[in-house]
Task: inverse folding
């Protein structure tokens, strides 16, 4: 194997060795000592160290391009930048889920090893350039997520979530394999480079060949829509996300979206002119996802499920942008994905901390911990005005209210749809987005203007807030909130990066 190829995959090799080291080390320590809660701090330190070293290796490989196993995996500049974005997002998520472990006094070192293994699989997914490599990597990632979903061993809800995820994941894997076999039978290859060359020639003269190739491409596309929880393939997400441990839900809703959306763009570029047959279907799937996510969120009383359906609605915008099959549409999608990751980390991080504070207050009052309802936000601004204001910024950004970056990302996708002479779809997206603002305003009303009497003690909440809300989370949240504000006025740099990524992908 060429030394250049090895250098281009050094981050993945390092992560593999890190997983092996951490597993052996922890098993040895557990057998010697009886550790209590502090083991989690040690695990997060290792994870942070491994992620930062991987980032250094990726940055060092900016000018190194290579491929592995006959183009099953490739590395180019756009892939390198996406891997960097993936690891940075994982770094933030790691410190968010740390708070859920600390405040819930969980003590599973295996969780972080599986988390690191899922990062490895998603990095390989970004490098995938073949349907065979995609299947191998996505199954590796799915196995990790099945375990994370059912990680609460004493919770029947967590076990049920893991089982539902496993069954639905196994079904969609069968659909993917069926579609891949049809494509291979029609075209004789599953490599993206070869597919793009073969599909450049029209298959209309071979009607049966065209039909089966279309069915195969449709099955693969449905699999990708399933992985990002886009309607009508979102049926698994609400129950799985709701039943999973909160830390796992945060991972599911953010991390895989980066890799899968990037792979989705590569898949669309590989289809080329054949994508014309799927464009309309993808567009209406995006509209349906935005519609379903928004209107189901309107009727939700539990805060966790509302956030889940809100993320499904956001995915609808991404899929609508992907359906355009234009460079401008792909740039808008990557920019929207960037803002989606920031807002998702913020909203789930705030939810996690507030949920744990609520649980601790219930412990003080000898009350059982239950699901957090929207009504729990009643008069929240009286407990901490700064934190309540950060909620407002996040909600308005997701809803697309200027001058926040969420407005810029949504309006850009809508304008790209208008440029393709599909004003009806653009108008529907605008209406759906306007309706979604309602349930965000409803939560803000709860926090600021609800006349209901306060049931919680102010002093009690303040004690918990200041002891549990660690300094690093203050810094992370402040940085991400600053990005939501500043990018609206200075969007040039992230837009140029997104354009560079798309141009690099299209020229490959």
Result:
């Amino acid at each position: 194997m060429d030394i250049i190829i090895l250098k281009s995959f050094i981050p993945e090799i390092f992560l593999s060795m890190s997983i092996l080291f951490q597993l052996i080390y922890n098993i040895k320590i557990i057998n010697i000592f009886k550790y209590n809660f502090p083991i989690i701090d040690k695990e997060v330190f290792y994870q942070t160290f491994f992620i930062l070293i991987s980032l250094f290796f990726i940055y060092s490989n900016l000018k190194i391009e290579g491929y592995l196993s006959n183009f099953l995996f490739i590395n180019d500049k756009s892939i390198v930048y996406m891997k960097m974005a993936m690891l940075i997002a994982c770094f933030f998520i790691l410190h968010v889920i740390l708070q859920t472990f600390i405040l819930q006094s969980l003590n599973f070192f295996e969780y972080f090893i599986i988390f690191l293994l899922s990062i490895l699989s998603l990095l390989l997914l970004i490098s995938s350039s073949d349907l065979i490599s995609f299947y191998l990597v996505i199954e590796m990632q799915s196995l990790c997520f099945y375990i994370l979903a059912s990680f609460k061993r004493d919770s029947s809800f967590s076990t049920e979530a893991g089982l539902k995820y496993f069954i639905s994941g196994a079904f969609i894997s069968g659909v993917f394999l069926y579609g891949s076999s049809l494509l291979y039978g029609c075209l004789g290859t599953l490599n993206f480079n070869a597919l793009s060359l073969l599909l450049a020639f029209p298959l209309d003269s071979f009607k049966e060949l065209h039909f089966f190739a279309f069915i195969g491409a449709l099955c693969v596309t449905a699999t990708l829509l399933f992985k990002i929880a886009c309607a009508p393939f979102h049926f698994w997400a609400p129950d799985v996300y709701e039943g999973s441990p909160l830390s796992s839900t945060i991972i599911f809703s953010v991390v895989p979206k980066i890799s899968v959306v990037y792979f989705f763009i590569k898949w669309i570029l590989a289809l080329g002119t054949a994508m014309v047959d799927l464009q309309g279907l993808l567009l209406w799937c995006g509209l349906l996802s935005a519609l379903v996510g928004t209107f189901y969120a309107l009727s939700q009383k539990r805060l966790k499920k509302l956030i889940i359906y809100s993320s499904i609605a956001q995915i609808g915008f991404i899929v609508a942008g992907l359906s355009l099959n234009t460079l401008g549409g792909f740039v808008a999608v990557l920019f929207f994905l960037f803002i989606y990751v920031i807002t998702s980390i913020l909203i789930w991080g705030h939810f996690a901390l507030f949920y744990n504070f609520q649980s601790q207050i219930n412990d003080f009052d000898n009350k059982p911990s239950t699901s957090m309802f929207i009504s729990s936000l009643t008069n929240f601004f009286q407990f901490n005005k700064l934190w309540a204001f950060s909620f407002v910024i996040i909600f308005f950004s997701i809803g697309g209210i200027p001058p926040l970056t969420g407005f810029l990302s949504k309006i850009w996708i809508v304008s790209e749809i208008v440029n393709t002479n599909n004003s009806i779809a653009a108008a529907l997206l605008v209406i759906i987005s306007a309706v979604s603002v309602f349930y965000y305003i409803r939560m803000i009303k709860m926090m600021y203007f609800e006349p209901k009497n306060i049931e919680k003690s102010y002093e009690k909440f303040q004690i918990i807030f200041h002891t549990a809300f660690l300094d690093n989370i203050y810094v992370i949240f402040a940085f991400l909130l600053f990005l939501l504000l500043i990018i609206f006025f200075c969007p040039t740099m992230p837009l140029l990066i997104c354009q560079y990524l798309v141009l690099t992908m299209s020229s490959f």
